[in-house]
Amino acid sequence: MRKMIIAGNWKSNGTIQSTKDLVNGVLNKAEFDTEKVEVIVTPIYIHIASVKALLNDKIKVGSQNISQTGNGAFTGEISAEQLKDFDIQWVLIGHSERRTIFKETDDIVAAKVLKAQSLGLKAMICIGETDEEREAGKTFDVLKTQMEAFVKNVTDWSNVTLAYEPVWAIGTGKTATPEIAQECCHFMRNYIKENVSEEVANALRIQYGGSVNGKTAADLIAQPDLDGFLVGGASLKAEFNDIIAAANNLEQKTE
Length: 255
What we know:
Order of helices and strands: EHEHEHEHHEHHEHHEHEH
Helix content: 25-40%
Strand content: 15-25%
CATH superfamily: Aldolase class I
Shape: globular
Distance between the termini: 9 Å
Number of domains: 1
CATH class: Alpha Beta
CATH topology: TIM Barrel
């Protein structure tokens, strides 16, 4: 069984006090088997140090983004080298908000993947279709195009997870049905099987993101090709522990 992975994307949220309350009042009280479930949270850059200091050692701290460049004259950027120096192991790459709001192209995402790989950082690479693309029947075409852009830059698949994040379900309150989530995650795994190897595909962890919450987590995580979640708004609430529990309580899946 692939180790479950639950990640919380805090996005651009949080104050010093609310972050302390979340860590001490929720996260440090989460009960789960670290041999079965891996938990990561990604606060804003200026809170990374304090969150690392406050969290117990069961939960890792990651970054919401990295620069495709290295150190140097790149005002406002945080380099992969700096994150590695700060002992940050995990980064998000290609989140839909980076793609849509900040106009990150598939080529930029691919460059960031290459940068993370070159330094041994672990990356959660996000892909997903918009509402218009789904309505037009282009979901699989979009997923394929987005994967094609970065697959060639991955040299160590043990340092990668893929996160299926349907854009239409992010921040909207809509959640893909377990059947939709499974269908898309299965397509992604099969793409890796056909274009990388069956061994890599079988070991690859695939997360679902898109308004997952404490009520929907159990049915979603039971799907055979889902290995965890990338959680948005619910990761700022007590129900994040319910999502962790849904993964921790999952029985052995059958292939």
